[in-house]
Amino acid sequence: MGVLTAFRERLRPGARAGAPAPSERDNALVCHCRRVTRGTVADATRSGEARSLSDLQRQTTACTRCFGCRFDLERMLRDALGEAYAPAPFLTRPEGVDVHTVLPRRMYMTVFTGYAGHEIDTRVVIFNWADEADRESRAVTTRADLLAMDGTRLDVWETVIEPRCSAVLDSREIIPDGLLDGGVGVMKLVVDSPRLSSLRPYFQLASPTAVTSTHEKTGPQDPGRRLKPRRYNFLFPIAPSNRPEEAYFFLTNTQVDPMEDQRLVWRSEHGDEESLTLPRLELDQSACVALHDAFPAIASGEGEGTVRLDPALHKVAGWMLRVDREAALWKVQHL
Amino acid sequence: MEGSTPLTSEPWLPTYGWWPRSEAYAVRVVLSPYHHAADPAAEFAFTLRGYCGSATPVWEHEVGRLGHGEQRVVDLTALGIPEPPDPSGGVLEIDSVRIDEPPGRNNPYIGMWLDARAADGGGYLIPTIPIRGAGKTIARDDLQVVPGILASEDVETELLLLNPLSEVIEVRLVASSADGLVAESGPFDVAPWSAHHEDLARRIPRLRRLLAASDGVGSLAIYSSHRILPYFAFRRAGRPIVSMDHPAPIFG
Fold first, then answer.
1. What top-level class would CATH report for the domain A102-218?
2. Using a CB-CB distance cutoff of 8 angstroms, which residues of chain A are in contact with residue B221?
3. In B, which residues are within 8 Å of A168 by CB distance?
4. Residue B145: its chain A contacts at CB < 8 A?
5. Closest CA–CA distance from residue A269 to any residue of chain B (Å)
6. Is A24-101 a domain of CATH 1.10.10.1100?
7. How many Å apart are CA A129 and CA A197, to the nearest integer?
8. Per-residue model confidence as pLDDT tens digits over A194-252
9. pTM for the model
10. B141: nearest Cα among A40, A133, A91, A38
């Protein structure tokens, strides 16, 4: 991979390089947006002034932009306060600021690397195109957080994408075996640019026999935005297959309100319905549901219909995957 | 029978997809009102049309009305329609109208899904899209980008361009390596109401050499004299494509 293009700078080496020395740990960033160190957070909790996530937000400014360090901070609070720590709602916007100019874009993608015994890897590409008509072309800083399915941040990378260049993040090069439990996780890109322009990331899933591609899904700029019923459904259309296929519904909650009592509903062309209830998902937490296990009509390849997320309430980042295991063919499509 | 007749009589705009020859893909159109509406009172009507080189459709199939809970999978190979005369295929129009209410200010179109399958296990699943009317803030109509094209001994990128308009669209392609070196195609035309389908490496000279320094990975800028509907797909070592996706617009 070209030196100019890869996500070379890994910002959080302690994540997989064994236990760092105490001083190194204290100097390590926990909030990459606000450049807040673990030592600063530890001082706030040790002094007794910070007893909640919202206290930490006010006192240190940590976790007030992309909210990606939320689980790290909660863990530190739990370690410091023990049973005295009671999880409480946190702030999603600094007081008095316009979220559209202050909060970055949060872009989510699935990451598969060796999932369920499959030989599958993920490549993310971002293109910072500029031509003579674009007077605002500039280098753009992009951060990539690798999240476990439970939202825990496992690693962080950062790159600067020069005009006309592409940044490429290849899971084979950056994610060691075993880091992602079950071989599945989420890449969350934090893009600092007032204008998105050409910076929509696409991701590819590569197997030995095929490459499939689709684009990210962006969460709302203010993840604390009040939930309101959507006028449409997130949907996975199912047509009959003459080959055995597995089907997966992957989704990430991009809002602060937890997803609770959400169901995946299979409805056949004849109107028959079956459903399963999804686990509770908080902000940045994900689920990957094997539809072929849940709904026999899909497993047989004879079903015609749709799987929808019900009720139509949350804004999720979601994708549908179909896998022809015999031919190692993966097909991915955003919802 | 003139093309896009509903544009003059209905406020809902049609959406489009590829109409390939059946020897390449068996295409099923998945019509689901759930995709567009959560309101149980919603009611829709669907008509499908195929175009190839002319604003007059080669065929038309009226699906009829569907209530909110109803769904229909229309297998094009079972309709008895002719093959597209052009080997590149043609343009499939999904004319979806919501009967119980007019469109809102944003997104005055109703996209549905195409599930295409090849005999060798390949295929793609993709929503149909409009040529105009998208609610997102788009900065430019003359440019779209593909982040992540591939060209190497192992993988080829297929490019598909759909022109659902009654005018010729001139296209120019600029491939960019990951570190910013570029190679261009010459300008070429996509005829009205037609599809243009070929390997990207055939259109852009020395594409593999350009991308060789970055493991065969780069990106693509697609310039067009009018907004056009491009798609791309990857084919590994002679195996089938497994997805088809649309490029990204330049967001405002």
1. mainly beta
2. 129, 131, 198
3. 148, 178, 214-215, 217
4. 127, 129, 198
5. 5
6. yes
7. 8
8. 788 899 999 999 999 999 999 999 988 888 888 888 888 888 888 888 788 899 999 99
9. 0.91
10. A133
